[in-house]
Specification:
The chain is mainly beta. It is built from 6 helices and 25 strands. α4 links the parallel β17 and β18. It is globular.
Length: 395
């Protein structure tokens, strides 16, 4: 691979990132910078004793992707102490499945860090590049080097558009938050709403926000790196199936006391996994009426004592009033709204009624305009702080 000093190629690095669909500034963890990259155009980094990503096995396909079975990369020059994150982009065959493993030592001891999943995301029902980040545990960075394997589990050979190594440049914030997206109903344009959620979360300076367009991350042992996850997707089994290991990974994460925040049609995710209701509290029942016609309605704060909603006032929003939730898991409703269709009150936001769980579920958030209401912004931001174990009110 052709090597270029990073200090002399900053503009080239940025161009390579853009050309190969690397996670943009909104998606990457706050307080990090790119220090090395490996794209089909070459490796970018200082080399020598400094960090470098190199292709070990596999081949380039034109100037758009690496391909092989498996693909192996080496990451070298890591220093003990700094925190690193690996950013990946892939846009493979939607009928294939790929996994990711980290290996350290010689011979390498391998750990699965991303279970087998479709190597792309879906927006407006069409496959699109998936961009995501994998935090690198200290046991790898302390060794100074490790290997990354992207393996084809089924379908075509594994493919990757590029890898980028990010290094922390600012002190860690109070809470790491991972916003997970990557698929939804065609009427929910998550590539437009996801930045809105990231922006409202970043209004709390205590959050370090990252975005993953790969829901399989919920089945990764690296999920424990984060204090809270915000789920903003509805996967479809025929195009983005999430096996039981992914759902059970989320269930373990929630049971361990980590924070989980669910938005809008995430209630419809994991239709293929019956355990989702126990995590989400309530789930979409397609046999029920889905929602009122899109329009303005009043959200009433029903519990003004709970930490999430303490001191909040009722607010109006332009959104979909969901009437489709079902389930028996104990919940505590924080906010509700009265349907204009049947005059019944439905839960808009609730928490699991379990003292050891920090799960918040809100069905507001149909489109970018739905996140413009200050009450909605405050509700999600405060709920994420509570889920992450922080005081919901900003200091």
């Amino acid at each position: 691979m052709k090597l270029k000093p990073l200090c002399a190629a900053a503009a080239l690095l940025i161009a390579a990132m853009s050309g190969h669909a690397m996670p943009d500034t909104c998606q990457l963890p706050d307080g990090h910078r790119a220090i090395a990259a490996c794209t089909p155009e070459g490796s970018l980094g200082s080399g020598g004793d400094d960090p470098l990503i190199s292709l070990v096995s596999g081949a380039t396909v034109g100037d758009t992707a690496f391909s092989g079975t498996p693909l192996t990369f080496s990451v070298t020059g890591l220093k003990p102490g700094p925190e690193y994150v690996l950013a990946l982009s892939w846009n493979g065959d939607p009928k294939s499945r790929q996994s990711v493993r980290f290996g350290v030592g010689e011979p390498p001891a391998w750990t699965s860090v991303l279970p087998a999943t479709v190597p792309c995301a879906f927006h407006a029902d069409q496959p699109v590049p998936a961009r995501f980040v994998l935090p690198i545990p200290a046991e790898y960075t302390n060794k100074g080097a490790f290997q990354v394997v992207v393996a084809a589990e089924s379908g075509l050979p594994a493919s990757v558009a590029g890898l980028w190594l990010m290094e922390r440049t600012e002190p860690a914030k109070a809470a790491r938050v991972l916003l997970v997206t990557g698929d939804d109903y065609v009427g929910h344009r998550w590539r437009e709403t996801t930045p809105e959620i990231a922006t409202l979360l970043r209004e709390d300076p205590r959050f370090e926000v990252s975005i993953s367009e790969c829901p399989a991350m919920l089945g990764s042992p690296l999920l424990d790196h984060y204090d809270a996850v915000v789920l903003h997707f509805k996967n479809y089994e025929e195009r983005l199936p999430l096996g039981a290991e992914v759902g059970e990974g989320l269930a373990r994460y929630a049971a361990a006391g980590h924070g989980v925040v669910l938005t809008h049609f995430t209630c419809g995710a994991f239709q293929e996994w019956p355990g989702f209701e126990e995590v989400a509290g309530r789930v979409w029942n397609p046999k029920f009426r889905a929602h009122d016609p899109h329009g303005e309605f009043l959200v009433t704060v029903l519990d003004r004592e709970h930490p999430v909603t303490a001191g909040m006032e009722d607010f109006s929003t332009l959104d979909e009033l969901y009437t489709c939730l079902d389930g028996d898991t104990p919940i505590h409703v924080l906010c509700g709204a009265v349907s204009k269709v049947d005059q019944k009150q439905y839960p808009m936001a609730f928490v699991l009624d379990m003292p050891d769980r920090r799960v918040f579920h809100c069905v507001l958030g149909h489109d970018p305009a739905a996140f413009s209401a200050q009450g909605v912004r405050d509700l999600y931001r405060r709920a994420t702080a509570w889920a992450a174990g922080l005081e919901p009110n900003l200091p």
